[in-house]
## 1
Amino acid sequence: MARILIADDHAVVRAGVRRILEGHPSFEIVAETADGKTTINKAIETKPDVILLDYSLPVINGLEVTRQVRRRLPGTEVLLFTVHDSESTIEEALQNGARGYLLKTDAARDLIEAITRVAAHRPFFTNKVTENLLRNFVSRPQQRPMSTLTSRERMVVQLIAEGHSSKQVAKVLQVGLKTVETHRRSIMLKLNLSSSAALVRYAVRNKLVEP
């Protein structure tokens, strides 16, 4: 029996996923959450086998949730569940410990297989994601552009764009205030930005937060 936590900030998505999974005798839904911080807490409390995790969660995004869950609960696998299929997002998900990557557009067809494979500690990627990874691996240059943000810097951008102060960001990420300020300076330099407003516009344009 695979124990599953569903994490998505849209109630209609959670309800749709629950309907699909409840008809499968090998799955048990142990919790539902709508933001990243609650997801981490519920995961620690329930210790699911699989977290079906939306990338664009509020408070703490899916990449940071993945990193923290995999560090605290190495037996829990993460299946990213998202509309984003960019190379950078997929790669960062894998680097942070995700076992699988499922596009929401493929859920009706692939959800059962994806959770079954991830629960068995096997990777799963839908066809479009696999094709993107192969295509981008072949075509990408030897080095990344210097402007590329790390997954931690992307998390800082999201939190700032959501209106959190540096002290609040430090508390969410469990780091010191100086560390947050260092990340912020690095982000502004990499992106050639000069104001918080410009940073918010960058976050919206790159879908780190919803407008």
## 2
Amino acid sequence: MVFTIDREIFRKVPGLKVGVLVMENIDNTVDIGDIIKSEYAETAGGVRAKFEGVELAEYPVIKKWREVYRGFGEKKARSSIEALIRRVVNGKDLYSINPLVDIYNLASLKFELPCGGEDIDTMSADLMLTFAAGNEKFVPLGETVTENPNVGEIIYKFADTAVCRNFNYRECDVTKLTADTKNAIIVLEDLGGDCVNAERLDGKTAADAGPGLTDALKWVAGKTERLLGAKTTANTVLDDSQNSLAW
């Protein structure tokens, strides 16, 4: 299978990098609730302290993503990381979906990167991140009615099926991760810069923590391997110089 990013997206969104993990032999039925709750409580406390009195719309990561969306005509859409941060700042817990989703949602908060995941076995063709033609079929998560993305919208798709709309803003029901998922692709989207949360993650400073995207990929892969018994078959970063991954 191949995952390819349209090179024009890198010109439209300068500095974009997409981290990709391909995980196999996942046991997505393991009960890791206590572990996630403990780590979430610690991370959420740090997020609330960091954003106390901060106007979220002006926070650099959130502001950048809003500018990206406006760049391809989306005025109301928001990045998934903005939605997560806003939820935590408002005193709400994260929804527990299933172990793999809970892991990457926690990573999204820790590293301030939009994350998403799809069940590879539900795809009948190669995956792409590209511009929508507008006739792709999209069934929103938890729904049954098919809709279409807007022309020019940046979407993940295979064949004529839109997997995610507006990067990772809206998830498709067809490829969602479930308890039955054994093989998955996880993507993390980065607009550039070091790990902004390094100083509160592992006692590191931003200077010695290294690139946030690389750290985030390592963190998700390690958690999924240790907790869900998965095997990582690909761990890479795609950009304009390398825009595809085959596995």
## 3
Amino acid sequence: MQKKLFITWVTHNSRYNEKMKLLKLEKKEWYFLDDNNRIFIYNLIYEKIKKEWIKNFTLNVLSDHVHLVLFYEKNNLSKLIKNIKWSVSFKYSKIKWFSRTWKWVQNKIWAKWYSITYLDTEEHHKKAIKYTLKNHEKHQINNIYHLVNKELWNTTEF
């Protein structure tokens, strides 16, 4: 059965939660994506999702988190998300930090956890898409979505 999902994950060290405070973990430097890296990461995620044969999805990459709305039929959703996060991090690190000595370090871009919300009605699905497409406004950052999806952006009414 096909499920409509709203998925969010954050960049490494971008959130400091109550559990971290209780464990007295130090807040470290967080991974921040500028506009160029957001576009680059967007394209890597987009290609990975297409490779998984997922056709109906909405994606927005922000400076410290990602929103993804999709239809998904299989039962291995956690495997899909981990696979997307790992492969994007791997490719990003390899391309960005590849040296002539054939040595590179894989940077940890994403935090371990992610959030999934099941969208049980058409209204919830539309709200999730609108929220995803407009989330850059909430964070007062540039909209990269129209740069990578020009045709779709011009035809989508929100």
